[in-house]
Each structure stands twice: as C-alpha cells, then as structure tokens.
Amino acid sequence: MAYRDEKLSEEKVFKDPVHRYVHVRERVIWDLIGTSEFQRLRRIKQLGTSYLTFHGAEHSRFNHSLGVYEIVRRIIENFNDRPNWDNEERLLCLCAALLHDLGHGPFSHSFEKVFKLDHEDFTQAILLGDTEVNHILRQVEKGFPKKVADVINKTYENKLVVSLISSQIDADRMDYLQRDAYFTGVSYGHFDMERILRVMRPMEDQVVVKESGMHAVEDYIMSRYQMYWQVYFHPVTRSAEVILSKILHRAKELYENGYAFKLKPIHFLSFFAGEPTLKEYLALDESVTLYYFQMWMEEDDPVLSDLCHRFVNRRLFKYIEFNPNSQMNEWMELYKLFQKAGLNPDYYLVVDSSSDLPYDFYRPGEEGERLPIHLLQPNQELKELSRLSDIVESISGKKRTDHKLYLPLDRLEEMSSRSKTKKRIMEILYG
Amino acid sequence: MAYRDEKLSEEKVFKDPVHRYVHVRERVIWDLIGTSEFQRLRRIKQLGTSYLTFHGAEHSRFNHSLGVYEIVRRIIENFNDRPNWDNEERLLCLCAALLHDLGHGPFSHSFEKVFKLDHEDFTQAILLGDTEVNHILRQVEKGFPKKVADVINKTYENKLVVSLISSQIDADRMDYLQRDAYFTGVSYGHFDMERILRVMRPMEDQVVVKESGMHAVEDYIMSRYQMYWQVYFHPVTRSAEVILSKILHRAKELYENGYAFKLKPIHFLSFFAGEPTLKEYLALDESVTLYYFQMWMEEDDPVLSDLCHRFVNRRLFKYIEFNPNSQMNEWMELYKLFQKAGLNPDYYLVVDSSSDLPYDFYRPGEEGERLPIHLLQPNQELKELSRLSDIVESISGKKRTDHKLYLPLDRLEEMSSRSKTKKRIMEILYG
Amino acid sequence: MAYRDEKLSEEKVFKDPVHRYVHVRERVIWDLIGTSEFQRLRRIKQLGTSYLTFHGAEHSRFNHSLGVYEIVRRIIENFNDRPNWDNEERLLCLCAALLHDLGHGPFSHSFEKVFKLDHEDFTQAILLGDTEVNHILRQVEKGFPKKVADVINKTYENKLVVSLISSQIDADRMDYLQRDAYFTGVSYGHFDMERILRVMRPMEDQVVVKESGMHAVEDYIMSRYQMYWQVYFHPVTRSAEVILSKILHRAKELYENGYAFKLKPIHFLSFFAGEPTLKEYLALDESVTLYYFQMWMEEDDPVLSDLCHRFVNRRLFKYIEFNPNSQMNEWMELYKLFQKAGLNPDYYLVVDSSSDLPYDFYRPGEEGERLPIHLLQPNQELKELSRLSDIVESISGKKRTDHKLYLPLDRLEEMSSRSKTKKRIMEILYG
Amino acid sequence: MAYRDEKLSEEKVFKDPVHRYVHVRERVIWDLIGTSEFQRLRRIKQLGTSYLTFHGAEHSRFNHSLGVYEIVRRIIENFNDRPNWDNEERLLCLCAALLHDLGHGPFSHSFEKVFKLDHEDFTQAILLGDTEVNHILRQVEKGFPKKVADVINKTYENKLVVSLISSQIDADRMDYLQRDAYFTGVSYGHFDMERILRVMRPMEDQVVVKESGMHAVEDYIMSRYQMYWQVYFHPVTRSAEVILSKILHRAKELYENGYAFKLKPIHFLSFFAGEPTLKEYLALDESVTLYYFQMWMEEDDPVLSDLCHRFVNRRLFKYIEFNPNSQMNEWMELYKLFQKAGLNPDYYLVVDSSSDLPYDFYRPGEEGERLPIHLLQPNQELKELSRLSDIVESISGKKRTDHKLYLPLDRLEEMSSRSKTKKRIMEILYG
Which residues form the signal peptide (chains A, B, C, D) (predicted)? Predict the structure, then answer.
C-alpha cells in the first residue's frame, strides 16, 4: 500500500482536555507527530509569557497543534460527500493543520521583533529543508512538502483548503480560543464549536457558514474579543514582554559592544547577527533561553543582570496609563529624570502600545489578512457576517489603542524619600 | 500593625482553572509568593515526565502549591468558631500549605533515586536557611520558620494542624487529584470537594469527616485509585522515567570515569558528588536540566547521546509484561543477548516495578505514613473509614505489583532480519 | 430569641446544579420554603412552553427562586462591612429574592395576555393576603410582609435593596440566564458570576460594578442577548405559545357562547370572568391546566379539541416570515382562503411578532423599566455601561421586530392536490 | 424508496444537555418521536418523586429515551464494519432504544406495586396494539413491531442486539446515570463514556469491552453504586414514595368500601379494579395524577386528604433507622400507641426496606437479570469483570438492606406534651 494511504493497525488517541480525544488513523500523521521538529513544540509555550499572569497558561504549542489537527479532521468528516469537497485534499489539510505552527520559536513575539525574524519563514524552511518532517512528507509524494507549505503560506491554489487553516474562522483560532481559555481558567472562550462545525459548508474557494448558525458565530467572535482584552493583551503579560524584549536588546547591544560575557552566548550569536540557520533556530527553545537568562543573572552588566532577575523571579515593571503622543513633555522630562536617577531610560522607561482590531484584528505574533466570514443564506447567496450581525458590526475594524508606560516602581521606591528627582517622577506619574 | 497581621489594601486573586479563584489577603502570603524560591516552582513540572504521555500535563508545582494553599484557606474558613480550632494557627497553616513542596527539584522521582537526595530535606533547608522565604517568615516571628518546617515535617505538636497538610485526606491530595485530572483531561479525579470541606471537623489531634459525608470520601478515594493506575503509574510515563534515570546514571558514570564532556556539566558536579549545596540544588531546575540534555545529544558517548535523543525527542522504550522473579532465566539470557547485540543491557534492558497501596498507598516521590481517615459518627465516636466502607476496604492495603521490561524495540528492529541474536530476543519477548 | 434572628441548628443545603449548593441558615427562610404557596412553584415551569423546543427545559420556578435567593445571599456576604450597606436589610433582601416570582401562574405569558391578569399583582396578594407566606412574614415583624412586597414592587425606599432584586444586572437575571442555559443545554448563558459578585459595590441608591469588571459584565449582557434570540424567542416555542393562547381564547369564547362542556371547566370559570380570587388563582397550576387540555381533546368543538390535541401531542403550527404591515393584501387574501377552506382563520392563521430590546430589553412575561448598569470608575465616578462599552452600546435600545405567520401546514397538506384554494394558499406562502 | 430506508432531507438535531446533540437522520425515528405515545413520556418524570429531594430532578422520560437512542446510535457508528456486526439490525436497535421505556406510567414504582401492574407489559402492548407507534413500525415491515418488542423483552434471537439495550452496561444505564447526575447536580455519575464506546466490541451474542478499558468500566460501576446510594435510594425520596403509595392504597380502599368521592375518580376506576385497558393506562399521566391529588385534598376522608396535602405541599414523613425483624416488640407497641393516638398505623407508621445489589443490582422499577460485563482480553478470551477488578468484586452481589421507619413527626409534636402516649412513642423512637 502506498505510504500516503497507510492506516495504523489500530486507531491511536491522545487524551485532550479540550477536544476530549484527538484521533489519529493515518501513518503519515503519526510519523509527523514523532519527528524531532514537532516534538520540539513541547518546549515552546503556546502563550509565551502569559503564564506569569495566568499561572495555568503553561501549555505548549504541541498541545495546540494537535488540537488544530483534530478540528480539521472533524470538519472534513462533515464535508465528506458534500459538493465542492474533494477528499483527495484530506491528507494535505491534516498535515497543514498539524504543522502550521512548526516555525514558532520561544516567546515568538519578542524574539521576532528584536531579531527581525518571522516564524512563518521558518515554518517554510522546516517543511522544505533537510528535516525529519520534510523526509516524511516527501514519502507521500515528491511535491507534497511544497503543497503543505503553500497551504500554510495561503498561496495554495485551492482556496477552500487554505481557508480551513487560515481565515477568520479557521481551525487555528477555534482551537486556541478554547484551549487558552481552558488553561488560563477564564470563563470566556466558550462557544458551540460542534454547532459551527455542523453548519460549515465547503464552497468553491472558501468555507462558509449557514446563516442559521450566525448566533454561534457571533458567540465565537465575542469570545475572541474577550480573550484579546482579558488574556492576550493583559497589561501584566505585556510587562513581562517588555522585560523580555529589553533583555534581548541588552544582550545584543552588549555583544555588539564587545562585552565579555562570563558565559559565551553561543546559542544567540547567529540571532545577534540576524541570520540564524535553520539548525541554530531550532536549537534555541524555551529551556535553552531560560538557561541563559539564569546564567545572565550572574553577569556583571547591571542592566542585563537586573532584567534577567526580574524575568526569572517575576519582579515585573509596574504600569500606568500614558499616551506618549499627548504627553510628550512629561515623557521627555521623565526620560531625563530617569537618567539623573541612574536608571537607563532606554531599558527602564518603556511605552507599550497595544492595538486591537476586533473581528478582523489579528493575534500578537501573527500577521497578514484573513478572509472574512461569509454566511450562506437560504437563497444560497453569501453575505459577509458583519452585514448581518449588529454585534459583529459594532466591533469590526475599530482600532482601539491602549498605551501604557512600564517602569520599575520598586527602584523608585528604594530611593531616598528626600530625593527631589524621585518626588518629581512620582508627581508626574501619579499626580 | 505587626507584619503577621498586615492585610493587603485590596484582596488579590489568581485565576485558577481548578478552584476558580485563589484568594490572598495576607501580606505574608503575598510576599512569600513573590520570593525567588517560590517562583522557581514555575520551572518544575507537577507531574514530571507525564507530559510525554498526557500532553496537557505541563502544569507546574507553582500551580499546585497555590491550590493547596487555597484549599487550606477554605477549610479554615469553615473551621472558624468551631470547638478545637485555634485561629492563632491560621497563618501557620496557610504558610505550610503554600510552601510544602518548596524543596522539589526537576523530575524529583528520578533525581532523588539516582543522586540519593530527598526533596523534603531541601524543603527544610529552604525554610530554615538563608533564603528569601526564611527572611519573610522570620519577620512574622523569630521561631516561625521552624514552626512551618515542623508542620511540613509532621513533627509540629498540634497534630490537627499537621493533618490539614498531610494525612490521607489532606489539602495536598485533594488539590493534586483535581488538578492533575484537569490538566491531563482524564475523567477521573472528580469528587465533591465542596461537600467534603463542609463535613470536615477539627478534633483535638486531627481533622475528621462527618459520617454523612462518607460517600463523598469514597468517591475521593476512588479518584485516587483511578488516578494512580490511569495517570501516575502509566507505563509510558514510566518509560520516560526509565530513560531519564539512565541518562543521569550514565552522566554520573562517565564523570566518575573521567570522561571529557564537551560541555562541562558544572550544574551537575555537586549532584554527582552527592552533596549539592542549597544554592546548587536550587539552580538546577527543569530548563537547566533540559539544556544539558540537549547539549549531551552532541556528546561522543553513544549511550549518553542516544538516551538524551530519546528523552528530548520522545523516542521512548517499549515495554512488555515481565516478572524478573519468575522469569529469571529469560532475564539472564536476554542480558547476554543484548551484550552480544552491542546494546549495553545496563542501559537498554530495564525492569521497572510499580507498586500501589490503594487507600494507604502513597504517591511516587512521597514517603512516610499518613494518618488514616476517621469518620465522626452521630454518636460522636470515631471510626476508621475502611471499617465502614466496603469499597475502601476492598482496596485497602492491598499491594499490587506490576513489573514491566523496558527496551529500545526500534534498535532491535533495525538489526538484520537474519540475525540469530535478534530472532532469539524477539522469541523470548513476544513468544 | 426573636423569630427573625433564629438560626437552624445545622445549616441546610440544597444540591443545586447551577450554584452547586444553596445554603440556608435562617429559620424564616426555611419556613418560607416549606409553605404551600412556595411549593406550588414546583408545578409551574420556569420556561413555560420552551420544553417543547428544548427538551431539557423542564425545570420549575421553584428551582429558579432558590437560585435567586442564593445569589443574593452571596452578594450580601460580600457586602458585609462595606460602606453604604446596612446589614439590617439582609433578611428583607433574602425574603424578597426567594419570593419575587411567587405570583407566577402556569404558562404565565399566554394566561396573562388572554385573561388580562398580572402575576405581579398576585405576588403582592400572596404576600399581603391570608396565606402561609404572609403568616410567616408577619412573625418577623408586623410590617414585614409590606416591606417584602414593596421591594418586589420596586417601591421600597431603600433603592439599593430594590436594585439587588430588580435592575439590569440583578440576581433574578443572573440566575435565570445560567439556569436556563444549563437545563436547555445551550452553550450561551455562561459568564463569570463569581467575578461580577466580587466587583459589585453597594452605593447609596443602587448596586454598581467596578469598572475593572466591565468585560465580565459585557459577557453577561451578551449571554442575555444570545439567550433571548436562541432560547426565549425561539420560533418553535412561539408556535406552542400561539396554540396555547388560542386554546384559552377558544375555551373562553365557547363558555361565553353557552357551549355545553362535557367536563365543566370549574377551575377556569373565574378566569373566563376575568376575576379569579387568590385561592382560585393558586389552584390552577400546570398539572390542572394539562388535565383540562387532555379532557378537552374529547370535546365536540372541533377547534378546541384540535388545538388541545396539538398542544398535548406537540403537533405545532409551522411558520414563515411574514410582515402583516407590508403584506396586508396577502394577509387579507389568506384570511378569506382559510375561511373558504374551512379553517377558522382566527385560530389557524396567526401572526406573532416578537420584539427585543437588547440590554434594556425585558423578558417575556416581565415588564417595567429597570435601572441601567453603572460602572464605578477608579476616580469614584459612575458611568453608565453603554457609554464605556462599544459592544453594549451596539445592542442598546435597538428594537428589532420579527414577524412570523403561524399555521397548520398539515391541514393544508391533507387537502386535495386539486384544490384551487390550497394551491393559491401555498403560492402566497411559499411563492 | 422503502419507508425503512427513508432519510430526512436534512439531519435533525435535538439540543441535549448530556450528549450535546441528539442526531436523527431516519424518517422512521423522526415519526416515532412525533407519536402521541412517545410525546406522553414528557408527562412522566424520569425519577418519579426524586424532585422532592433534588429540586433539579424534574426531567422526563422523554429526555432519557432520546438519550438512550443517541448512545445506541453512537455505539453502532463504531460497530460499522466490525466482525459480528450486521448493519441490517441498525434500525431495529435504534427503535428499541428509543421505545424501551414507552410503557412507563406516572411514578411507576408505587403505581406498579399498589395496582399490581408492570410497565413492561404496557410497553409490549403499545408496540403491538392499535397505536400510532405500532402503525409506524408496521410500515417498516409487517413483523417489525414484534421484533422491537422482542428486543425490549430480551427474547430476540440476536442476543448482541438485546445486550445493547439491556445488559449490565447498556445504553439505558449509561444514559440515566449521566442524565440523573446532571439534573440532580450531584458530582457522581461521571465516567468516560466516550472511551467505553470506543472499546466496546460486538461479539456473537453480546457486547463486550476490551480489557484496556477496564478502569473506565470500573468508574462506571462506581458511578452506579454512588448514584444508587446518594440519589435513587435517598431516604427523603423514599418518604415521598411511602406517602404516594399510601394515597393510592387509601383511595382504592375507600372506593372498595363505597366511599362517596366528591370528585368521582374516573381515571382511577380501572386501576382500582386492577385491569386498566391500554387507553386508560395511557390517559393517566402525572398531570392527571396530580390533578386528582389536589382535588382529593378537599375530600372528607381525613387520611386521604391529609396524605394528599403532604404529597402536594411536601410535608413528608420523618424517618429513623428501624429494623422490624429485630425490633418486633417495639413495632407492636408502636402500632398500638399510634392507634391510641388516633393515627391509623396502616397509613402513618410505615417500614420501608431498600436493598441494593451493587454491580448486579437493579434499579427501582426495573427487574430481571441482566447479562454480566465481559472483558475481552488481548488473547481474545473473555473474562467476567468482577474476576479482574478488585473494586467491582468488592461490591458485587453483596446485598445490603436498609430499614427505615417513616412517620408524621409533626402530628406527634402537635400532641399535648403531657400525653403519656406521646411520651412513650418518643421514648421508643428516640430513646
């Protein structure tokens, strides 16, 4: 039997807290899960630094990837025998679902920003390079790795297939909303996925949802909205991200300035240079990162050491509302006051702005535009969701920006109560 | 106001998926949570290698410790104003609950076995040594660290207090059963804790449960029984433990034999010597451990390198039922055949025996005897649970041992199909 | 000890699927639950005819009333010691919560419309009349029944107390959303009540919510929105309501026309006359109503008999979208065609219009305006919710009317396929 | 297309709180659900009088019947293509599952005992008599009603089919345990049904379970054990049953003695005579029963009136432990004392004995022996569950009888405190 058609002698199941069970019947899927590149996702947290805000959020991208696979598997089970659906695409969909996050590194958001990398490029590189994953995909068919890469890259010709993996209501989002809600323990993130799956219909170039399922979709959009504001953009998480970014910046800066590290940061060198090879990229997972952070706590550079201490032991920066645009003067004065107080403002006075684009907003660490959601009306016409739903319309496309100023309040508090610098800083900050 | 009585200006809550919210009002508790020793528990998984079997089981001991604290807090809330209860002990109970697992290291079970350590000794050392935790406890009262240590050590004079933290139905167990069930996603582990808490009564020297709550307690005991067999003793988890132990053994052996490591295992040296200081012990968390395992994959020693590859990439050993006592001859023959096949049997042919002691059994990594559960009858007499419950009686004290033989089946399969050694091995193993 | 202060010797608990446990400590509450007027609520379904759409919705108003009591109990537990809160009002709040729905009759919505009754009048009458409930309340204090009645009537002077029982975010609504979601099994209706309760603050004349809890409140409003459209206004439920109303109409009409009932409708006589006494009102619960419907299936009047058959055996009318305002001509033609076909259009051709007022909408069977939700900002100012929340703003005050035409499609289908009347009817209906 | 093969144009789903959705594709099933005999199950509570103990337990047999159908549907979906499974039996299984409880009347347990009836006879009668259900089944095939009746009656030749509907681990039990737990809100009743379904295997003459699923089955058995003791045999529920039985006894006795009822009990006459026709049987549902109870509250006979008051308004008897065998003298003395006190002991002094047969026990209202559970071992041999499971063995076949004496404590308390009769009664009862 051709490898692509091989079935396991007995179906394998993974116990999954979100979907109850993840079912695997195909040999190809089983083999992909066993690759070192896929297993590596166990060492990358799904929500990066969020575990410092929500202690339950310690789950990995491995979890999520299995979940996305399972949702796509169920969608396709429902599609079987429907018009527009070509079951020849089934294995391709399953592989793309499973592997779509393969290129994520540790704390992607900050790493990518500081080192100017893009996890999507690495996903492509893993799929197409000399990897265990590529080796397995090639056994299916010579051009198969490219096909999987194209689906994930949204350039695959069959747009219906693409929309299963990335659209405004794809398996990726449906999994992470539910999974992140489950592990953080928040009460948002619930919607009736079983119903959505039942009313999904394959069309020529996209998956659509029967209009009768509109309320379930609204519920899903609202979950998203709530998860963004309550979890993904939580100001404490952003504080941890701020510190993380500053650690990476500082290490890079020190390296570029010829600072003599006690522990040579061999895993980071290519990152500092901006050009990690695939192998180097894969070697730097979260345990390696945390190892360095712990070693760097012992470095002589006070900024690097302090920031690492803060991250490892969760001594985060405090925040206040602060709009750098309208508060330019305060900003400049604070900058100078911090310098005066011996707190390098480039590292200790940080403005962070979050923005959300409800409905068509995208998740930190993700980019690109996604297909809107189309509802299939009884008369077989399609209509874009926000044209039928008041609620969705109300949150569509509205950009809301939230600026916060992050700083080490503990350091200010330690200063003498007679210090005028301190007094002035506190005055500006807290009025 | 005395430090021990200080309240936070506003109650703090942690969102917890198991208990919904963890509530903190005391400054002391808040400060303890912020110590580096307590934050370190975020880098120690609650279930060690179980995440390789149940992908959801990635939660840390930090999680669990907060949970135990919260349960004790709720128990005490119910105890208020009851006879036998002295509310002066409240803060002590909360601290002991929060800190009871403080001495756990990475993958405790294997580390302790191989390096002959005991996490309870380190819990004591952290509480009584020069640590942030000790510093805070001392502010409460000079002898307070010792009191907390005594409660955790079960030597504190007020046995009622001890029994809240460690007995057959203590807050520790009630938390981990529910928490481990939640994160693994298994359907065991549920019992009506709210009801148990409501029928708990403080007695002079122990916590007891009103007889009317017996069925809820039975349910709790059954949860424990199921969790042990379905989760804690899962043979795949034990396979990962086998490999982990063998890695540690091998590294130690190599070190003792003067092997030249490419990366000097500085974090491990004191462990190899069997005498890590407290500081050294605390420095070796799971991210550091995993860092070494990944570096060791590149070592020249084929055994160390292979075992690390197996652990990191989850290429576990397979297992078959095997009783070394009754199958001594097969065992000896296999040993020789493995040597012949170039597979060092000390590392590649491992018998692992699990035993359980339902009801009075104890959890891997824990030791000591625990107080049995007493039911308070309407006539105010106490009776031991198993004397009233058929179900509990049926599983009490019965030792069931389960022997398994672990080995790298993949290596055997790679051998030439004409190899007589292979043939004979397979014959012995699979008949 | 004064009756109002009497505690039960041991706290009583009710196992409740929604709130886990309902706790009762006061003798007054316990006695009220035991009255025949309160027990009668077991024979009135919480959601009237909804069980014909959602088979799980068979729960009674007894359930819900206990739930509202429990929520108020928890709110007050949090209020203890807060400014603006006078604990002297506690028992009053608990009684009002428990008894607020006491005057509901069977299938309130239709009964009240047809017989021009108001369940709120009957609640007042039960509280103030010669009833077991009144007898108990009077033991608390002579004027206590009036106080309870005033709270429920929203005329009590302490508006804070009133707002606990009836406002846009009162205990009533928080209970029924969760309870109705639980019993129907829909995935809407979830919100983080524990959080809302924790951020509720008593103010001089109302309960407000701290701004930090805004997202939890948004979630609650969205639950409401979804429950209205998915459950409360479900078109199949409305079909059952249509039939129910028409049964009551027909029975009344027959009675007024001197029709000789085989079974004299003694329980209904005072309702037909429009003036049931309290005793008569209380005697007519759902089992009595269903008894009559079953007996009336055997009546000679074909309309009454048919409608009762339909209700009892769930042979509901079908519906199509139909706007009587813009389709006046069709409506008139249909009316005549139905007459021609021998189907009395007054009973067999029914337009039903639902309207919703999201956020300030009210529930079928309830009336009156409710206090809006105010958020308490960090600067201690109050702001109305919709001014801070885009989502709530988007669904506030918008009236959406949905018209449907209900008719017995089965009867049309039975007509000869050559009937021109039938053909024309079908043409108008389905184009 | 043959009626038996007709599919609905679109799958219909019922929202079910226990199984999320119940799916119907077959026209036959849809039509059966619409029959008046099946709809009548909405007017019969699944747990009889349990709602007087657990207020959530107001769900009907209609609910449960849909649930059993859904479980069988899922089992068969898994059986497809397995050896031993003949898909020709599918529709038969679905119909038998749906209809297995069709003959239940109101409060079956007491009605059957007092009037010497058997709901199973009525199930057969409905299936085979002149009913809407029979009419539909006959359209499938002339002999089909008989086949369905045989499956339910356990006399169908294909024992595999029988075992799906009635065995120790059939769809009936799996549904009611979960459903009754859900509606009462107790934390028992959970087990991993999805897993059990996945390891079920069809054998020649029964359904068996793969040994690897043993722990899930143990969990199911334990759920059963807990549900029996915590819910089904709850002493308060038994108090309500005692009163119910006594009402029926009294009404019968009065009738036989020529008592002149104010309201002639026409619905009960044939029951008193012991020979209700099918039509009469079906007419007497719970609403009719409750109607009579409410009317009888106004009867002149003080016993009937009092008992009906007690049932309707939940003024239940109190209970104490009492073993009539070992306490014969007390019993006889109490009997006389009650007579002396003017309390007819035949109605007001009632011993009720419950017995359970854990594992092979059966549910109140059900009878007959059921096939034990067989585990399928890896070597393809079958072994009875209790031979492999200590826990199940421990509760197997052990009969535990629990005797309670029920009496109206309120009536005793009303007696003068100087009454010697009262004093002596209280002495015997409470020592």
Answer: none
